[in-house]
Sequence to fold (296 residues):
Amino acid sequence: MAIPQNQLETWSHQGSITQSSSTYQSLKNVLEAPATPYAKRLHKSFLQGSYGNSTNIWADSDVDIVMQIDSVFYKDVGELPPGDLELYNAAFSSAEYTYADFKRDVLAVLLAKYGNLVETGNKAIFVGGNGGRRDADVLVAAQYRKYWRYRGAADQSYTEGLCFWDSSDRQIVNYPKIHSANCVTKHADTNQWFKPTVRIFKNMRNRMIQDGYIAAGLAPSYFVEGMLYNVPATYFGTSYEDSVVGCINWLLGSDKAKLVCANKQYFLLHPTSPVTWRAENLDAFLSAAVRFWKEW
Fold:
């Protein structure tokens, strides 16, 4: 047996767009209000995750929002030659307004508006939904730069991402805008098959959890999306059945050590990194997906 085309078609559809958009706009208005303590400092908010990448499904609930400070940034200068590093150190000094200050102020703004609907988590600030507003996770972040060259303000090169610190004070660096841009390119390269296929796999995962094939948390959406980003464009298209089977077969035969995250800044698999998947979880997911497909 195999999952029929009409079920795959249903699973390919995007989830709520209007409600997630209005939720983001509602929180954006609060976070970027002119009376906030950080209003005169460079900052911005943007969507990340499934809603931001248009891979959300109907079961997705939380809207993921990044609130980022840009007037201060953190950096990796480990690749700079000694002369460039000397120029960099002469050009920049420590900021007076830090990430910790910004996170404190963002939390205060959210608490003043939403009260007991606000909870601080390990990585993000949760804002509970109310009425037509969905639950949201607000990730407070700072700009991050991985420098490759610095010979002055007019002659520098760096890869821009974001960073934040979790509740155990561990710095986490990621590149959501590069991830999103690369997925847009992948979607175009696959003649618009990539994102619907991602949504099918996410719905499959949810059904596999429901039916006991895998445990919840084994295959987070971010890693499912990253996993499929590695599949060559020629394996997408013709039909959803061909796309799903082609992707699974390619992944089963791939050199998994070479798989990358969609941002192409990290390998997809690593035993300890907080921004990568565990190899055993990918193997378990693919094995379960094959059984699920055959036993449908």
